[in-house]
Amino acid sequence: MENYLMIVHVDGNQITDWPTFHSVFAEKFGFPSFYGGNMDAWIDCLSSLDDPAAEMTSIHVQPGQTLSLVIDNAQAFKRRCPDQFEALVECAAFVNWRIAVAGGTPLLGLAFSV
Question: What range(s) does the Barstar (barnase inhibitor) domain occupy (predicted)?
Answer without folding.
Answer: 6-93
